[in-house]
Design brief:
The complex is a heterodimer. Chain A contains 26 helices and 28 strands. In chain A, helix 7 runs parallel beside helix 8 (135-152), helix 7 packs parallel to helix 10 (241-256) and helix 19 (466-482) runs parallel beside helix 20. By secondary structure, chain B is an alpha/beta fold. Chain B has one domain (6-234): Rossmann fold. Chain B has helices spanning 18-27, 70-80, 90-97, 154-162, 220-234, and strands at 6-11, 31-36, 47-50, 85-88, 104-106, 114-122, 138-145, 149-151, 166-171, 190-194, 200-203. A nine-stranded mixed beta sheet of chain B has the order 2-1-3-4-11-10-9-6-7, sandwiched between helices. In chain B, strands 5-8 form a two-stranded antiparallel sheet. The two termini of chain B are 13 Å apart. The chains are: A alpha+beta, B alpha/beta. Chain A binds chain B through residues 146, 149-150, 153-156, 240-243, 245-246, 333-334, 420-432, 443, 558-559, and chain B through 13-14, 16-17, 19-20, 23-24, 52-54, 56-59, 112-116, 142, 144, 146, 206, 208-209, 212, 214-216.
């Protein structure tokens, strides 16, 4: 820690924040207390820049059991079951140490789900990197994927994909998000509403506390990444997935046997966060004995014990009568456990070491009463010119076939098999549709219901128009779920942005929240929680503002789910929805025209909702032979992916009065490519008409070739080789 | 009525596919019996499965610590008496470490974890997983591992091949064994082997993840059906 500046600034607190602490305590804080406030009032933990915006999100709905503010949100899926889900980022640690950064990101989000009393049943990883043409980006990409696999595969939770995007602004700042989904009987959820008692014990379960991850939330996650970033590597935590697996099993057994009054994970801000939040929620005070905390190194300083982010630890609130049972369960799973404190009357958090009080603060002042900022907001200059430079009106010299193959080979569009084959997507035995489909489908044990999960972020759209970027992300995530026949129920999210102290970034954030809120209201998918990741920037230049949406959908009978592949010849192919002259922000514009500019496609949320109704109703009535979202790369890519997935070609006719590049590559919203039998076609046509969704017949499936009218054709096999080979080829350098 | 064969599935700390194995055994008509690593008790089962996962985190070497678990003494005694023992993935690694199966498993040739449905060709009917099957038959099952490359000394490999101990090989859908379909670089594309006596078998792919048509191909059904009838024959 540099000595030339005052301690509070070195810890990341401002002078005003120090004054606020003084006012709260009525005295100067001691260094331990200062360290506690520094982590709890960090941007990462306190949401001080985002809170006023997050309050505007729609959070209520008939399925919502638990909304934002707890470890994770919970949705009622009927039959007495709750689905618990949440998304987080681990971008900063991953930018410094990709394997451990990504690995511990998985560990953290999984413990959030376990803390709700739910068994983790799936995770998905939306990732954004710089271009793979640069060696450092290849190192980050390979390291992050290996870290996700290395940790996720070892804890028995299937990783069902996610998504991967590549863009230059992510070169120094990869965005590493992870969503975890769990399931529990609704009446067994461990929520803040549980009764706790004066004299109840705080039991720390799991790993010993070490010097890893000191200041992870304040040093790493709440500052931009600059050239000396490698020096902060000791702030990255080290994961032990084996310990996590034991922790999952032990905690779930404790919950199943109803031995706990409360349960909280230790992640960001470590023991300080877990004890202050548990205490604040209890409405009581607490006394913590640091001598009882098992340490990896005997010489840990007090403030280090209080803020260490050592992984694989949980804090349980236990009635004294149940203590022996709790300790026995931990012991059987080979986990250390120790009573480190208890709930007492009052509202203070008192920390002792060696019999002396080393910190004493109001618990709520740490957990709930952090600073709230209304930071200045300013629309960035130059957006109008970028919008006017719309590629829709560019002169296109490229040939149709070359354009098609170039878009297929773009790593944003190309197959992510190299990534998801490194993830165990099958463990737990419920994976009905794994990575590679529009949404992952996972069966709910004991019935026909299945969950549909999708994650979507639209960085390029967000860069051009953050409002529409976020709204499109919600729409696409919902569409990905609906296209397989599931009803979108609710979202979680991870907001990936630059430095909030810059008014332009704050404007992007405000616009994104507005877009997400509008879309969630229109599509009736409330926000149950999420995460804000600021300071994703270096040298004054931020990442593309990206709202990543994690959508939860429900399908009542998984046997009716619709898959994306053209399964056999002789099917009628339709475009459901309408294409407009909208090449702004498209993959085609970037890859073929070299342009990230223009007007982002319009989004009519009513049209979007109608499309979903047709998709869901059509699936219930078994009208679709296939259905696939039409978005990144446009119609051409949607058709090609349907052909690859079903190993069947097609021939389609294209309208003569629209430029081919608009028809094939515009990324207009609210569309899907579907196929059906000639017998079911009339019923589908009337269903679409009933919901006022345009349905354009395109052609027919069959043969080994993909025939785009008289424009061009390619064999399924050749095109697939390009699509599958693009990322491995780039990685080969 | 004949009783259902009881198949024990051992849970080590870090086992992951134990629940899946129990479910698969039950769905195939057997009785799944959970066994705990720390107990010296097989609960009178007719067959034992050592399931997939990362026992003890696989921190020293895959399977190297699990072989010293108290229950492994019982498993060895059971195997010596001719009892059917199946090791899947990490279970295969444990059986190799315990000396119950020949060879060893090292990091995949590509140095990456791989999760994929693969084809395997049955090489012998003389194992608890292939009793009712015909050599040459091709089954589709998933594999998911980072350390599944089968290796053995030249001498051991000769013996393994010479004595017909290879049970499964990775292959193309038509049964052809070639380098392209060798998932992890295993010697002679070996995906599974058996003991000399024939009652202990280990394989890297996961038959327990291939019994339910709702979640994918069903190449594991005939393997587990074989195990159940093998176990029943001993009752």
């Amino acid at each position: 820690m540099p000595s030339e500046q005052p301690l509070h600034r070195a810890l990341g607190l401002t002078d005003d924040e120090l004054d606020a602490i003084r006012t709260t305590l009525g005295r100067d804080p001691n260094p331990n207390e200062l360290a506690m406030y520094a982590v709890m009032w960090s941007e990462h933990c306190s949401y001080k820049s985002s809170k006023i915006y997050l309050r505007t999100l729609p959070t209520e709905g008939r399925h919502v059991l638990v909304g934002p503010g707890q470890d994770a949100g919970a949705i009622d899926i009927g039959d007495g079951l709750a689905v618990v889900f949440k998304m987080e980022s681990h971008s900063h640690p991953s930018a410094i140490e990709p394997y451990q950064g990504a690995a511990t990101g998985i560990g953290g989000i999984v413990r959030d789900i376990v803390a709700m009393g739910a068994r983790p049943i799936a995770s998905l990883d939306p990732l954004m990197f710089g271009p793979l043409t640069e060696e450092r980006n290849r190192w980050l990409f390979a390291g992050v994927v290996a870290g996700i696999g290395g940790y996720g595969n070892c804890i028995g939770v299937p990783t069902l994909g996610g998504e991967v995007h590549f863009a230059e602004p992510h070169s120094t700042n990869p965005a590493i998000n992870v969503m975890c989904v769990g399931i529990a009987p609704s009446d067994r959820l461990v929520t803040a509403a549980r009764a706790v008692h004066e004299g109840s014990l705080m039991v720390l379960i799991g790993a010993a506390t070490g010097r890893d991850g000191i200041g992870g939330v304040s040093v790493l996650a709440s500052h931009t990444i600059e050239e000396d970033a490698a020096e902060t590597r000791p702030s990255v935590q080290i994961g032990d997935p084996f310990a996590e697996k034991l922790l999952i099993e032990a905690c779930l057994e404790l919950v199943e046997r109803d031995l706990l009054e409360g349960l909280q994970d230790l992640g960001g801000a470590g023991l300080t966060c877990a004890t202050s939040e548990s205490t604040a929620r209890s409405g009581m005070g607490s006394e913590i004995e640091l001598d009882a905390v098992p340490l990896r190194a005997p010489d840990l300083e007090i403030w280090e014990i209080l803020t260490s982010e050592s992984q694989e630890r949980m804090l349980a609130i236990v009635h004294p009568d149940r203590l022996n049972d709790v300790l026995e369960v931990c012991d059987r799973w080979g986990l250390a456990s120790s009573v480190i404190g208890k709930l007492v009357a009052g509202s203070g958090l008192t920390v002792r070491k060696g019999g002396e009080i080393v910190a004493q603060v109001p618990a709520r002042s740490l957990a709930d009463e952090g600073p709230i900022y209304e930071r200045p907001v300013a629309r960035p200059g130059g957006l109008e010119e970028v919008e006017r430079d719309d590629p829709t009106f560019s002169t296109v010299k490229a040939l149709p076939l070359d354009s098609f193959l170039a878009v297929l080979a773009s790593p944003n569009v190309a197959s992510k098999r190299w990534v998801w084959e490194q993830y165990d997507s099958l463990v737990q035995g419920g994976t009905v549709a794994g990575p590679g489909a529009d949404a992952a489908i996972i069966r709910v044990e004991g019935g026909l219901k299945a969950l549909a999960l999708s994650t979507d972020g639209k960085g390029r759209f967000g860069h051009l128009d953050p409002y529409l970027g976020a709204a499109h992300a919600v729409a696409e995530a919902a569409r990905n779920v609906a296209v397989m026949g599931a009803t979108p129920l609710a979202i979680t999210n991870c907001m990936n942005f630059g430095n909030p102290e810059r008014p332009e970034v704050m404007w992007q954030f405000a616009e994104s929240i507005r877009g997400m809120a509008d879309a969630c209201r229109a599509l009736e998918t409330p926000v149950t929680g999420g995460n804000v990741s600021f300071y994703n920037e270096s040298g004054g230049s931020g990442i593309w503002p990206t709202a990543v949406i994690g959508m939860l959908g429900l399908i009542e009978d998984h046997r009716l789910l619709v898959r994306p592949g053209f399964a056999r010849p002789g099917l009628v192919v339709y475009l459901l929805g309408e294409t407009f002259p909208e090449l702004g922000g498209s993959e085609f514009a970037e890859v073929v025209l070299g342009k990230v500019a223009g007007r982002v496609p319009a989004l009519d949320l009513e049209r979007e909702a109608s499309l979903h109704r047709v998709l869901i109703e059509g699936s219930r009535r078994d009208l679709f032979a296939s259905a696939h979202d039409c978005s990144d790369g446009g119609l051409a890519v949607a058709l090609a992916e349907s052909a690859f997935a079903g190993d069947t070609g097609f021939a389609v006719s294209l309208p003569g009065d629209v430029p081919w590049y608009v028809t094939l590559f515009a990324e207009s919203a609210s569309r899907a490519v579907v196929s059906t039998t000639t017998d079911a076609a009339p019923a589908l046509e009337s269903l679409a008409e009933e919901h006022h969704v345009p349905l354009f017949p395109l052609g027919e499936t069959g043969g080994p070739r993909m025939v785009f009218d008289a424009l061009f054709e390619a064999t399924v096999e050749e095109a697939r080789a390009i699509y599958e080979g693009a990322i491995p080829k780039l990685l080969a350098g | 009525m004949r009783r259902r064969p009881r198949v024990g599935v051992v849970t080590f700390p870090g086992s992951l596919d134990d629940g899946d194995a129990l479910r698969a055994v039950t769905s195939m008509g057997g009785e799944g019996v959970p066994l705990w690593h720390a107990h010296r008790d097989l609960r009178g089962v007719d067959a034992v499965i050592l399931p997939g996962g990362f026992s003890y985190g696989d921190y020293l070497r895959t399977g190297a610590i699990a072989r010293f678990a108290p229950i492994m003494e019982e498993v060895s005694t059971f195997a010596e008496a001719g009892g059917p023992v199946v090791g899947i993935c990490n279970g295969f690694q444990i059986l190799c470490e315990a000396g119950l199966l020949p060879g060893a498993l090292i990091r995949n040739r590509q140095l990456r974890f791989v999760c994929r449905f693969v084809e395997v060709r049955v090489e012998t009917s003389l194992s608890p997983l292939t009793e009712g099957l015909v050599p040459g038959e091709v089954l589709t099952v998933p594999a998911k591992h980072g350390e599944g490359q089968f290796v053995a000394s030249a001498e051991d490999l000769d013996r393994i091949e010479g004595e017909g101990l290879v049970v499964f090989r990775y292959c193309a859908p038509d049964g052809a064994v070639d380098d392209e379909h060798n998932l992890n670089g295993s010697l002679h594309s070996i995906a599974g082997v058996r003991s000399q006596a024939g009652n202990v078998v280990g394989l890297m792919p996961h038959p327990e993840h291939a019994v339910d048509p709702d979640v994918g191909p069903t190449g594991g059904q005939p393997m587990l059906a074989s195990l159940l009838s093998y176990a029943l024959a001993r009752v």
